[in-house]
Specification:
Dna Ligase, domain 1, about 20% strand
Length: about 375
């Protein structure tokens, strides 16, 4: 049985989980994605079985007990060493992140609820994989699943990805998740690692970019702190930003446009608006770290869009023959109300529905 799959291994698509499945789907696009591999959920079951844990006894309490002293099985450790030697032959550090089966889906988002580990030494990856598994059964995650009437979790797949030492990082949305505008991309940027943005420790620069690539709005924040990896203590720390850079844009206009374009390329590939994480390394190269659907957008109308409702009801069948003035006066009012109700059923917001009777009465 295979427990570890590479980016180009299409056999494992159904085992990869949200993050890795999206990256695998993008593997042939030539987008700038750091190298990666994924540890399948089967590795969790195999490691538990090696400790004598019985599948038939599966329950949250028994899994918590088993997780307390869990370690990777010997066979998986051998496969992991081979995969790491291929991914980081010179001991390059990696990111170890969850990739749960139903994580980052179109209906529910588990963003930030499972643990991730950055700048991990290759020799510590095995330990961090188990830590990610533990986070998949945390009280926080179980509460979220119960509140959303989701089934109990299975072990997440674990994504191991080459670490980008980000000088600038952030997120981008290929459509505006606040207003619902599909033609406006949002780009948010901070100095250093994206953990500063996710944690809310710093305010981010924010840009709105239209489909022509024009920046139509920008807000430059005071960015006094940045999260950076400090090698001598081997930790990610919050460090002060150079005074000359605090009120300066983190990105050039060209970089903003490139990030918005990247988000839209991902949207085009998946056929739906996407939320991406990105990073720029010390050389200025832009990387795509992950992509997921914008969960909040599905029920939002596009305020700039054209909304067409087509109906082919055969009204003539209701009133056959020659329509007299009396019948017409009644039918006109009746069908006006019918079409108003039809628009409500179709989800047309009140602000988009005609305020006068004419469009409905003349149908």
């Amino acid at each position: 049985m295979n427990f570890i799959f590479q980016a180009n291994d299409v056999r494992a698509r159904d085992q990869l989980g949200g993050k890795a499945r999206a990256l695998a789907a993008l593997a042939q696009t030539r987008l700038p994605i750091p190298g990666w591999f994924v540890v399948a959920p089967a590795a969790f079951d195999q490691s538990l079985a090696e400790q004598g844990w019985v599948e038939a006894e599966r329950s949250i309490s028994s899994i918590h007990t088993a997780l307390a002293n869990l370690h990777l099985s010997e066979a998986i450790q051998v496969d992991l060493k081979i995969a790491l030697n291929r991914l980081c032959p010179n001991g390059e550090r990696v990111a170890v992140r969850s990739s749960a089966i139903d994580e980052d889906g179109a209906q529910h988002s588990f963003a930030g609820q499972l643990d991730s580990f950055l700048f991990v030494n290759p020799q510590d990856v095995a330990v961090q994989i188990v830590d990610v598994w533990r986070s998949g059964f945390s009280d926080r995650l179980l509460t979220y699943r119960q509140e959303n009437q989701l089934s109990l979790p299975t072990a997440p797949a674990v994504l191991v990805q080459t670490m980008v030492d980000a000088q600038i990082s952030g997120v981008a949305f290929s459509a505006n998740p606040v207003t619902g505008q599909r033609a406006i991309a949002l780009v948010s940027a901070v100095y250093g690692l994206g953990t500063a943005l996710v944690s809310g420790d710093v305010d981010a620069d924010s840009y709105q970019v239209n489909r022509a690539g024009e920046i139509v709005q920008r807000q430059i924040a005071e960015k006094r702190l940045a999260h950076r990896y400090v090698p001598n203590i081997q930790e990610i720390s919050s460090v002060e930003v150079d005074a000359a850079l605090i009120q300066q844009p983190a990105l050039t206009d060209e970089q903003v446009q490139a990030i918005a374009s990247l988000a839209r390329q991902v949207e085009s590939h998946f056929g739906r608006p996407q939320d991406i994480e990105w990073a720029i390394d010390p050389s200025g190269k832009l990387y795509l770290l992950q992509a997921r659907p914008i969960t909040a957008l599905a029920q939002m109308p596009d305020p700039d869009g054209v909304l067409n409702i087509w109906d082919n009801s055969n009204i003539a069948e209701s009133y056959g023959g020659v329509t007299t003035p009396l019948t017409f006066s009644f039918a006109r009012r009746a069908y006006e109300e019918v079409y108003r109700q039809f628009c409500r059923i179709m989800g047309v917001p009140k602000g988009r529905s005609p305020s006068t009777t004419a469009p409905f009465a003349e149908c």
